[in-house]
Design brief:
The strands form four sheets. This protein has a nine-stranded antiparallel beta sheet. It has a nine-stranded antiparallel beta sheet with strand order 15-11-12-13-27-26-25-19-23. It has seven helices and 27 strands. The protein is elongated and about 80 Å long. Helix 3 packs antiparallel against helix 4 and helix 6 runs antiparallel to helix 7. The termini are far apart. Strand 17 and strand 18 form a beta hairpin. With 370 residues, the chain is an alpha+beta fold. The protein is 19% helix and 44% strand.
């Protein structure tokens, strides 16, 4: 193999695919990045067998071939090369020479035959969605995914794909996120559960454009096609929680409308003391047209006052402030509606009437000790 390629193109491609390099594995080959030179392209591939990322860049291919380079080292090395042109040459001892300006480096490669192949999904089952819409769908839901291993299925995000709408649902047992986005087109109706890590990496590869991407679903895999970049993730198997039943069982006896930024800022200040107490507990005291937030610790207390519009009864309830703050950071709505039923039942955060219902957040309260 012998090629010449643009240094910035190579650096960008390595950065993208390196997200799929295996971190802890008993198979060292999965710590590598496979380089394949064919015709006028260099294809880079990394996989940990759960997530695979393939990226193609243009290259002057003098001799076709392939090799597997140590991923972490190659990524760090190439990142520091800012030269216009880089020449890669594989010798007969499976060593890769890297030439740049008047300097060169050498990397001993892994055995090429042992590396897994990138199997593009051959399917007609897919949907199309704008990049910005899919990115927002993920970012508005992914923060509430479970991080412990007690319920492995909750370490993924449920995608419900319909003819016109896609929904994303996550829950860690203490809160639940439901977000929606409009599809450009779809020829399937199905559900799948995508691992948290995979969705986070997919979101990082998406820009804020209105360009439409195709996403394929087949058996236990999902593939995102970005043109010169493709991402394949293995899906989680199992039954997700019945979120519709959880949401429908939450009545709305106390409903407030509040400026999101004002409440977010007040929670930030109130949670400063609650963090010292290591419980993040902030009390919500809803009284007519006012919401009082209070937090206490050994060094003092904070009481915040916020104007609201109340529909229903007064209420006193407490929450982990972090759950509210993470939900608020995921949306940019000026006002939100928060619905409560009792001090021991979850609240629901939604957009106010007249706005598109792009999100719904459910948060369990914390029991107050009198």
């Amino acid at each position: 193999m012998q090629i010449i390629c643009d240094g910035l193109d190579l650096s960008d491609a390595v950065l993208k695919v390196s997200k799929a390099i295996a971190v802890k594995t008993t198979n060292p080959i999965l710590e590598g990045i496979k380089l394949t030179a064919e015709e006028n392209e260099l294809t880079l591939l990394a996989t940990d067998l759960e997530l695979s990322i393939e990226k193609k860049i243009r290259a002057q291919v003098k001799e076709e071939g392939s090799c597997v380079v140590p991923g972490r080292f190659f990524s760090e090395f190439v990142k520091k090369l800012t030269n216009d042109k880089i020449e890669l040459t594989l010798n007969d001892k499976n060593g890769l020479n890297i030439k740049y300006i008047d300097s060169e480096g050498f990397i001993q490669c892994f055995t090429n035959d042992e590396y897994p192949s990138f199997n593009t999904l051959n399917t007609t089952d897919y949907f199309g969605i704008k990049k910005i819409d899919f990115k927002n769908l993920i970012n508005r839901a992914i923060f509430s995914v479970a991080i412990d291993d007690s319920r492995p299925i909750l370490k993924g995000c449920l995608l419900e794909i319909g003819k016109d709408i896609i929904k994303a649902v996550t829950s860690d047992g203490y809160r639940l996120s439901l977000t929606r986005a409009v599809l450009s087109f779809s020829n399937l109706e199905t559900n799948c559960i995508v691992p948290d890590k995979s969705l986070r990496e997919i979101a990082k590869l998406l820009d804020d454009s209105d360009d439409i991407i195709n996403i394929y679903v087949q058996k236990n895999f999902l593939m995102v096609d970005l043109g010169d970049t493709k991402i394949i993730t293995r899906l989680l198997e199992g039954d997700f929680l019945n979120y519709n039943q959880i949401i429908s069982s939450s009545s709305q006896e106390t409903v407030i409308t509040v400026n999101k930024s004002q409440l977010e800022d007040a929670l930030e200040r109130a949670s400063l003391l609650s963090k010292i107490g290591q419980n993040n507990l902030v009390k919500f005291d809803i009284n007519e047209d006012t919401l009082y937030l209070t937090s206490n610790s050994e060094i003092g207390n904070i009481k915040e006052k916020i104007n609201i519009v109340l529909n229903g009864r007064d209420l006193v309830i407490a929450f982990n402030a972090r759950y509210f703050l993470e939900a608020f950071r995921a949306v940019d709505n000026e006002f939100v509606k928060i619905s409560f039923s009792s001090p021991t039942n979850p609240c629901i955060i939604t957009p106010i009437d007249g706005e598109k219902e792009e999100f719904l957040y459910l948060i369990l309260p914390v029991r107050m000790i009198n």
